[in-house]
Amino acid sequence: MKLKIAFLLLLLAILSPFPVQAEIRVDADFPGGNVKVESIDQGASRTGGEDEVMSPNASVSAQPSSNQEPTLSGANVVCVRPDLRDTKSNYFYFYFRVTGAENRTVTFKFPEKSTNFGAVGPNVSVDGGKTWKYLGEKDYYASGTKFPADQHEFTWSFGPNDSDVRFAFGTPYTQSNWDEFMAQYRAREDVRFETLCRSRLDKRDVELFRVPYLGQGKPRFYLAFTARHHACESSASPVMEGMISFCLSDAPEAQWLRQNAEIVFIPFMDKDGVEDGDQGKNRSPHDHNRDYVQELYPSVKAFKALIVKESEGIPLVFMDLHAPNIRGGNNEFYYSHGPIEMEKMNPIWNRFREKLTENQKDGTLKYESKRDVPGRSDGKYNSIRSFTGKDGNLSSSRVWIQGLPNAYFANCMEFGYSLCGNAIITPVSGRELGRNVMKTLAEILQEAKE
Ligand SMILES: [Zn+2]
């Protein structure tokens, strides 16, 4: 019987005027992957054509949600949502792969109760995650039109060779991106590739990249930089790459840094979260950047121990790199959080802002210091109390650093996911910004009195 059915199916396939198509598959089984698949309608089979058979879910796709002109298409419909895992509130990170959809037009529907996409829509890669382009990029650059905040779906027409197409909220960045960028420095003798600790799940190493002090006696400064306390905040990572590339460049300020400072970078504070594709922000019971009292996470415990041991008696400079919220207002810029209840740091912060304005003035990503958020003392946003929780048993990295006797300057910067002013953010423009951030830091430290 089974053989007969198989034979009939084979006969149908041969006689059919259209090729038999594979099943559409949606998955997140790769580093950084994150999706919850609600349903996949395998109904419609081809793109366009006058004799198109409409599926029950066929729809008119609307610009700017589609990568082709609006057509009445027999779109397959895939319903997905971000996989929140242990995130305590709703969040927006997703990164999934679609296979088996060659020659089909597929509409991806997201939950209608939340905003799902940034200012230029979802990001798309047709080369397995190597390069990315936002779906709304063309419209934004042509007419300044943003992807509508209340649009909960987009449509993609898969070409005959689109065997692996990926969609993400922002531009993903995982360990393979780090390894690829850092390969150029592997052979240098004046840097160290170290391990901060094992990750919480004991599956991975948490990287520490060191640019050792080359001068005599004690360094004048100890510089520490962290990223991805919140796993999904990938736009911070190219900025860190740019900071590293400036440190290792021949620029006079970079040479001065290496002669005067010990410098450490921790690219993935929540390493498991980054590789496993967690949102990370606001995870239960608290996220990595609220762990500076309780030390649930080995990377936080190890980072605190490293700083206390290595920077003792040396003026400490710290910058924590983040990405802000989904879209609108400040989220479509980058900005700096001012020192909190630390009067002595305010002049340094203001000098940093002044210099960064100058250094970034010809940069792709415009910096407007009016976007910065000064520290507060009233218990609201960017005050000490806003980081410490109801019972006072939480603390962020920056608040913890500020409390150390050798704290010289502690800062947190937020780098938007997709749009900065009127430019769409790319890894290239993120790196450019990072180089200027590091140059600015070097300049204000050079100005400091002996
Ligand atoms: Zn963050």
Describe this structure in words.
- It is a single chain.
- Helices cover 26% and strands 21% of the residues.
- It folds into 2 domains: 13-168, Sandwich (Immunoglobulin-like), CATH 2.60.40.3120; 175-447, Zn peptidases (Aminopeptidase, 3-Layer(aba) Sandwich), CATH 3.40.630.
- The chain has helices at residues 2-15, 137-143, 175-182, 236-247, 252-260, 271-276, 298-310, 346-359, 384-388, 397-402, 427-447; strands spanning 25-27, 36-40, 59-60, 72-73, 76-81, 95-99, 105-109, 123-125, 133-134, 153-157, 165-168, 192-198, 205-211, 221-227, 261-266, 316-322, 334-337, 407-415, 419-420, 423-424.
- It has 11 helices and 20 strands.
- It is of the alpha+beta class and 450 residues long.
- Zinc ion is lined by residues 230, 233, 281, 322.
Continuous helix count = 11
Architecture (CATH level 2) name of the largest domain: 3-Layer(aba) Sandwich
**Mean pLDDT figure:** 90
Structural class given helices, strands, pairing?
alpha+beta
- Spatial strand sequence of the major β-sheet: 12-13-15-14-16-18-17
What integer value in Å does the Rg equal?
24 Å
Note the beta-strand portion. Answer: 15-25%
Number of domains: 2
User: How helix-rich are the residues, as a percent range?
Assistant: 25-40%
Net shape = globular
Tell me the major beta sheet. 7 strands, mixed
CATH superfamily of the largest domain: Zn peptidases
**Poorly predicted residue ranges:** 46-65, 68-73
What hetero molecules are bound to the protein chains? zinc ion
CATH topology of the largest domain: Aminopeptidase
Number of strands: 20
In whole angstroms, how far apart are the ends?
89 Å
CATH level 1 name of the largest domain = Alpha Beta
